[in-house]
Amino acid sequence: MRPQREFSKFPTMEEKQTIMRRSGLAAVAAIGTVSLLLAGCSKAEDDSTDGTKAAGANAATKDVVNASTQKGGTVTYEYSDVPDSFDPGNTYYAYMYNFSRLYARPLMTFKPAAGDKGNELVPDLAESAGVPSDGGKTWTYKLRSGLKYQDGTAITSKDVKYAVERSNFARDVLSLGPNYFQQFLDGGDKYKGPYKDKSAEGLASIQTPDDTTIVFKLNRAFQEFDYLVATPQTAPVPQAKDKGIDYVKNIVSSGSYQFQSYDEGKQVTLVRNKNWDAATDPLRKQYPDKIVVNLKVNAETIDQDVQAGNAIDLGGTGVQAATQADVVNNADKKASTDNTYGGRLVYLAINTKLKPFDNVECRKAVQYAIDKVSVQTAEGGPIRGDIATTVLPPDIPGYEKSDVYATDGNKGDVAKAKEHLTACGQTTINTNITARSDRPAEIDAATAIINSLKAAGINATMKQFPSGKYFTDYAGVPKWDADNNVGLMMMQWGSDWPSGYGFEQQILHGDAIGASGNTNLSQFDDKSVNELLEKAIGTEDKAARDAMYTEVDKKTMDAAALVPLTYFKVLLYRPANFTNLVSTAAFSGQYDYLNIGTTKK
Amino acid sequence: MTAPIETTAAEAEAQPEAVLAGAGKGQIEGRSLGQIAWSRFKRDKVAVAGGVIVILLVLIAILSRPIQALFGLDPNAFNQDLIDPNTSLPKGAWGGMSWDHPLGVEPKFGRDIATRILEGSWVSLVVAFGATILSNVIGTILGVVAGYYGGRVDTVISRLMDTFLAFPLLLFAIAISATLQGGAFGLDGLPLHISVLIFVIGFFNWPYLGRIVRGQTLALREREFVDASRGMGAKGPYILFRELLPNLVGPIIVYSTLLIPTNILFEASLSFLGVGIQPPQASWGGMLNQAVDFYQVDPQFMIVPGLAIFVTVLAFNLLGDGLRDALDPRSR
Predict the structure, then answer these.
(1) Which 3 state secondary structure label does DSSP give A18?
(2) What is the ipTM of this complex?
(3) Partner-chain residue, chosen from A40, A326, A464, that has the shortest CB–CB distance to B297
(4) Which among A324, A444, A446 has the least Cβ separation from residue B108?
């Protein structure tokens, strides 16, 4: 899962790669700050939109906007930074998971559909969903027939096996993606990856009995394995063409588009893949002639280009604060926006191991003391997030509305907070609160929290750290927290795949507590929660699983281990001139990039 | 400088200063170097204006907390009812200006900008003065020692200066400020941040003054009064601090006055980058940092702290320039 570890300038937490798909949010924010100062004089007028009426606010979160089968033209994407990698086996950003499908087909993928409907898995390279056996410990996939690479050679299940091996087991070469397969595949801890282990057999727990069948043998029952194979890590890579870290310069396409040029850190151009056959692919439509990605574009310029209908924001993290202020006050422009959940929760973790917060009454005092409306306003208002009262956000299965610590208008209740403080045997608490220095919204939220806690007699002092070291050196190191009296920690969490397990395991399971790189910041270690999570992932029935995730959510809130602040939302500007725009929950509310076309020639 | 031929009492000040004043009236009044400098300074209207503003700023900074207490102001009080939650911007024109909030309120929190500027003033000046004093003390002592003793002592100290000058100061400052966030030297919170800033800014700036002092000392130590003092049996420390140092006061004062605005800017830059003063404590650099996101839609919020920094730096610079001209007319 991802507490958005996206600030690429700082060293990342290689040793704890299970942490989340990154969304590029902080990078945008930080770079935006600087680039606003440098430039910001370029003008783009809105008149280039060709007079079509906007579909209305949030239209793309309900249905496909500008549905069209028109072919031709060039679709341009812009991004304010650079992605970790275009290599499907070496990326962890949600937008790259989304975009890479144009040239790299995973076994399964998410259906291009609006909102929650986009969370549905559909077979992509595989002909149908995985067939579990052995109680969910063995998963078998059958590839479609007639699959070809861009050079016309056939795609086999061995290429899929090789792709998983290189992306998960050769951490010294390709380290940027998650390593779930290494954790869940049988014998995964011993295999050293295809660059070191040159044996023909490779990893024994992935078997390829024939060219169209692939079997995964896991070390435990894992009923959500289909989600794992929906990452770009299962997109086939021909071993003969793999050059390790340099594969990114000559990626062999299995999708509807192939690389025409790759200019690292600047521009990428994709053109139609002639050897891609629509008969083997019910999802992709190959509408535009060409797809161009411009990198390192000033965040403000992106906003202007998007409003002018000339580009799509690849990062999908939404418009800048200034643009937001402009857009929401203008009815015409507002009709071209999509304001949607990003599958993430902004919360305040309470250190359950630190005195006096080891006492549940003290934690409840914090729950009641915080004015969530004030926090929400500080973060940028309802457009940037709805007030949260549960661990699971509404776009994750298992969410059930509840509010254990309800206060009048969510504005906090000082009297109740003081009651609980007294029950805890305290009158005042002095503590520290950590936040990530490169995330302005997080610092602003912490500022609002400090303000409302003060009224209840809890004095918190803010400590800021760069996000690249937040988990490895500071908040994610339990001993450091204890030594520095850190009782409260700002946190944001999103799921690698849309399920309660994907969301909850890394932040609530006792086993997730580590000496460093810890993402269970509350150090919440509740036996019944741990058991529920283990039981859930081995349960075949989805409804039963989801019910258990709801139960975990409830238990966490009863124990007051964290204060949900807001369900994170993004404000996307829907560029005119582009067709088939649909905002999907599966990719943090981004538009689904598979079939975007253009009306421009 | 040509003196007018006919001399009247009123024009006495325009005379060549070194000689006599009031000669026309038959009074002979000797003037000290300080008096001469002061009369020169008084004539420089721009510098006087700078000086007046500096005095006002220092008064404001010293009285910042008492003023807040007197009027019941709290720089950290939220007024989110004045904020439009959809845009994060203050309601009303000019960044939410009103009688209650004469300079408007911040986006997002609705904190009063005037009060935060007031609060930020003492932080800025404490850091700038503290850092200046620190670098002056180190720079003066090491400079005078290096210049007076020469030889091996000079070599060691001069190389030390070179080493310090070679430090990438800004990067170093960012690194130190970021690492000391967690608390150090038994300090925490605001006192820690202020001490760290004073240390970082002051400790790495001393070689600039050190070099100036060393150069002046090199010239002074060959002068007759030093020889005379030595001839009468004075030892090193006495000569250093009683003979040389008083003659170095001029350059030190001038350099300090010019260093203070640099340090104010440095403090603002570090706070702007998020490694200086930490929110919610108000600081001018921190306010600018917040304002960046809103400069198009709420320019008011950026202009106010920007102006505060601008006026302060300009006033100190004008004062410093005036002082330099007054104390050392040859450098004009």
Answers:
(1) coil
(2) 0.72
(3) A326
(4) A444
